[in-house]
Amino acid sequence: MKNIVLFGGPGAGKGTQAAKLKEKYSLNHISTGEVIRAEIAAETPLGKSMKDYISRGELAPDALVIDIIADYVKSHSDCAGNIFDGFPRTTAQAEAFDKIMERDGLKVDVMLELVVPEEELIKRLVLRGEVSGRADDANEGVIRNRIAVYNAQTAVVAEFYKAQGKYVAIDGIGTIDEIFDRLCAAIDSIE
Ligand code: AMP
């Protein structure tokens, strides 16, 4: 079983690559951002409580996101593996995640970071905003805030996995297939 944390700034290509990895390795995939957007669209109480954070480009509260992951892990502990996309995004989430995984006799195998310079991220997100329909992609101020939040709260999560010897940096510049090949080479070498 392979449990992979796919890491990187907003617009780094996590969603695109997760879809391809899922296919190739028969993994399950969870994107906390997608779960949150679905909750908001369905106007659930959870969605309502997260809507303002997302629209400002801020992080949703740790406790809510950790609950989402705990539920997910409980129901996906018996499969080829999982890709965690957009989670963990704070050190508190990473610490809680280790405990959740341990409870089911699981562990994170590797964190793969798609490394993309900030100006390239902004360019990609502005472009994506023209087609994605995502409210948080549509406004450059919100995009810049998401990157500032990433730098302030999320980038440090890489240190958590580096300390566990599980961190691998992947060059996130190139064609989708080139980047995919780099990810696959890293995954194939962890067995
Ligand atoms: P994403 O689709 O990963 O870009 O996430 C979109 C938005 O969902 C983020 O800007 C946050 O507001 C929220 N979000 C997604 N994942 C998390 C997380 N792990 N912790 C807190 N907020 C999150």
List keywords for this structure.
single chain; 191 residues; alpha/beta; Rossmann fold; 9 helices
Characterization of the model:
- The protein has one domain: P-loop containing nucleotide triphosphate hydrolases (Rossmann fold), CATH 3.40.50.
- 57% of the residues lie in helices and 14% in strands.
- It contains 9 helices and 5 strands.
- The protein has helices spanning 14-25, 32-41, 45-56, 62-75, 91-103, 118-129, 140-154, 157-163, 176-188; strands at 2-7, 28-31, 81-85, 110-115, 167-171.
- The longest helix is centred in the C-terminal third of the chain and has 15 residues, at 140-154.
- The mean pLDDT is 96.
- Adenosine monophosphate is lined by residues 10, 31-33, 36, 53-54, 57-60, 65, 86-87, 89, 93, 136, 146.
Principal-axis shape equals: globular
Number of helices: 9
Please identify the structural class as seen in this structure.
Answer: alpha/beta
Give the name of the CATH superfamily.
P-loop containing nucleotide triphosphate hydrolases
- In round numbers, the mean pLDDT is 96
The CATH topology label is Rossmann fold
Helix fraction?
A: 55-70%
Number of strands: 5
Bound molecules: adenosine monophosphate
Radius of gyration: 16 Å
